[in-house]
Amino acid sequence: MKKTLIGYYFLSVLTLSAISCSDDDDSNITDSSLVKKSTVIENYANLVFKNYQDAFDGAKALQTSIDTFVTTPTETNFEAAKTAWKTARETYGQTEAFRFANGPIDDNDGPEGLLNSWPLDENYVDYVDGAPNSGIINDVTTYPTINKTVLETLNGVGGEENVSVGYHAIEFLLWGQDLTTPADKKAGQRPYTDFVDGGTATNQGRRRDYLSACAELLTDHLQLLLDEWKLGGKYRTEFLALEEDAALKNMLTGISTLAKSELAGERIFVAYDNQNQEDEHSCFSDNTHRDIRLNLAGIANVYRGSYSTVDGSSLEDLITEKNPTLGAQITAQLALAEVATNATAAPFDFAISDTTERSKILEAVNALRALGDKFVEGGTALGITVSSELPE
After folding, report:
1. Is the CA virtual torsion 352, 346, 309, 218 positive or negative?
2. Distance (Å, rounded) from C-alpha 316 to C-alpha 40?
3. CB contact at 8 A, 319 and 375
4. Closest Cα to residue 252, out of 367, 374, 337?
5. What is the rounded CA–CA span in Å between residue 329 and residue 332?
6. Distance (Å, whole) CA 58 – CA 81
7. Where are the alpha helices (DSSP H) in 258-357?
8. Are the beta carbons of 230 and 236 closer than 8 angstroms?
């Protein structure tokens, strides 16, 4: 949330003048800060809930679209389901700013691994090029039944890349492998007839069951987060009861870690360094460029205290009031990161492979890393120790 601080300083000067003109008894002197930590923390809780509510609504619309396709597997309905997936990612991508903040998304029984795990080993789920019978879908003997319970249980079994559910499992089912060259700027080309009885691949009915179960699990797991963050929800109550600096530390740690280590490092630089589209976040749909922009938008939302209909006291306000020079630097670095990120080419696999576009990727990485470091400095200005490193 952007606000002018001129009024803050003017009122502060008046306050100081009044104090200097008073007698030597300072027993009536109170904190003149105009930005209260408690209001920043409460605004964050409201923002988190609203973002998760929007993500849930997007996932519900995706589920409806997938149900329509599964019931009537036409090309038109297939394309509609893919569009719904991309739309759902627009809101969920911004919720990544709530990770690494000791919240319910990442705790021991948190649903993150069931929502957004990647990279995904395609042949754990379905057929791949050169292996037409691979995957859970085609292993009728081992997995005679495909339902939510079975798929959730199988997630992560045998290795982190054995992802069986979540956004990226749905993505793979809708797009299939991306076997095109980056210069073609095309996503995966799975035909809708893979889901049609007598169509282009075997086990069409099981593939439909798998897609439906994944879509339903998505809303199930997002509902868990809504329940935690709603008014009176278990985690929201715990969060608002935290010592104020502890809550602010969680907030700053989340966005600094996402900016520097997770987004700049794991999600962008690894793929840039390897020049391998298999390392990109949404490699089947070629939607990674949106993932990156949305993750940064989520960071900006938290720092500015503004998202959709939520707009209130922010970390930006708090830090700028405490240290105007540093506040201006962080605000400028956030804007620089936004410009650098938006300048990267789409799709991402083209951006990391094209010689003229790669430098822009590196500029975005450096801007995001610097942003994470600036958030750490902001914490220090508030007397809070913040880390931008991924937890081990």
Report:
1. negative
2. 10
3. no
4. 374
5. 5
6. 12
7. 270-274, 288-304, 315-322, 324-342, 348-353
8. yes
Angle CA 289–290–293, to nearest 5? 90
Tell me, what's the pLDDT at 266?
Answer: 95
Residue pair 259/298 in contact by the 8 Å Cβ criterion = no
Question: Could you give the CA distance from residue 93 to residue 357 in angstroms, rounded to a whole number?
Answer: 24
d(CA 230, CA 233): 5
| CATH superfamily of the 41-381 domain | M75 peptidase, HXXE motif (1.20.1420.20)
pTM of the entire predicted model? 0.91
pLDDT for position 30: 42
CA distance 44 to 317: 13
Residue 32 tokens read as 């003149």
Taking Cα atoms as reference points, which of 167, 285, 161 lies closest to residue 217? 167
pLDDT for position 279? 87
Rg value, the chain, Cα: 24
Mean pLDDT in order along the chain per 10 residues (392 residues) = 38 36 39 86 98 98 98 98 98 98 94 96 97 98 98 96 98 97 96 97 98 98 98 98 98 98 96 89 96 98 98 98 98 98 97 96 98 98 94 77
For position 283, what pLDDT does the model report? 95
- Asked whether the beta carbons of 217 and 148 are under 8 A apart, the reply is yes
Q: In the numeric block, which tokens belong to residue 157? A: 């079994």
What residue spans define the domains of the chain?
41-381
Distance (Å, whole) CA 254 – CA 386: 9
- CB under 8 A, 24+ apart: contacts of 2-6: 2/304, 2/316, 3/317, 5/320, 5/321, 5/324
